[in-house]
Design brief:
Elements lengths: L5 E6 L2 E6 L10 H13 L7 E6 L3 E3 L4 H10 L2 H25 L4 E5 L2 E3 L1 H7 L3 E5 L3 E3 L13 H9 L1 H10 L3 E2 H7 L4 E3 L4 H13 L3 H14 L4 H15 L3 H11 L10
Parallel strand pairs: 2-3, 3-5, 4-6, 5-7, 6-8, 7-10
Antiparallel strand pairs: 1-2, 8-9
Helix pairs in contact: 1-3, 5-6, 9-10
């Protein structure tokens, strides 16, 4: 499938999605939303065993395309415009954030330049975040009198704490990559020229791993926030039992017994 707002390629089991609206800082226009949703759908193919999400130019993703909001505001009444923004958020969550967060294979955000607003949400929805040394995270919402969306009010406090999340929102000051690493927002920081290469190296390693187990582990961790310990222990037992029926679990046990590296297939 060809795209106009992003680049999509698959190599060695790794799908790399590059948001490609550099002049608009890779902001999410309706067309960009639709194409990103389609690309995430392609990532569900068995041939894809890990995903890298990044941006072209000077930004990872600047969030919503505020120019689109401005144009809509100029042609609609207050209630109609409110409905327009609400539908935008619902669509973003339904078609992008939730599918990205629920993708049953590991995902790596390669954060180049600015990640703002919903752009932070895209990074949060990935399993791992690798940032370039010049990357910056800006909540941006308070600049336009908005509240957070794209999972930022849910995932960000769970990652860095409510106090730091409120600091980012209220003060709206950029968080640089080294501080983001200290806060636990990102897993690694690398030189800008090495960013995509490093993210693809990590994803390539993950693509050789037990894909089904990775996906089930992600689901367990997500569900843990809503479960009691007793309920969640039941989920753990059920999940590991299911994994015991997979080829990769069988291969892992055999490789351990034979003192060799496992050869996982993702099944």
């Amino acid at each position: 499938m060809s795209y106009e707002t992003l680049l999509y390629q698959v190599a060695d089991g790794v799908a790399t999605i590059t948001l490609n609206r550099p002049a608009a800082f890779n902001s999410l226009s309706p067309a960009a939303e639709q194409e990103l949703s389609q690309a995430l759908g392609e990532c569900r193919a068995p041939a894809v065993r890990a995903v890298v999400l990044t941006g072209s130019g000077r930004a990872f993703c600047a969030g919503a395309d505020v120019k689109e909001f401005s144009q809509a505001q100029g042609t609609q009444g207050k209630l109609e415009f409110a409905a327009y923004v609400r539908e935008y958020a619902h669509r973003l969550h339904r078609d992008i954030v939730l599918p990205l967060a629920a993708l049953a294979k590991p995902t790596v955000a390669a954060v180049n330049g600015v990640a703002a607003g919903a752009g932070i949400g895209l990074a949060l929805a990935c399993d791992l975040r690798i940032a370039a040394e010049d990357a910056r995270f800006v909540m941006a919402y308070s600049n336009i009198g908005a509240t957070g969306d794209a999972s930022t009010t849910y995932l960000l406090p769970r990652l860095i704490g409510q106090g730091r999340t409120m600091e980012l929102y209220l003060l709206n000051e950029p968080l640089d990559a080294p501080k983001a690493l200290r806060w636990g927002l990102v897993n690694q920081v690398v030189a800008p020229a090495e960013l995509v290469k490093r993210a693809q190296e990590v994803a390539a390693k993950l693509a050789q791993g037990p894909t089904a187990a990775y996906g089930r582990m992600r689901a367990l961790l997500s569900a843990s926030w809503q479960s009691s310990l007793e309920t969640h222990l039941g989920s753990e037992a059920h999940a590991i039992g299911d994994m015991a029926a997979t080829h990769d679990f069988e291969e892992g046990i055999r490789a351990f017994a034979e003192k060799r590296a496992p050869r996982f297939t993702g099944d």
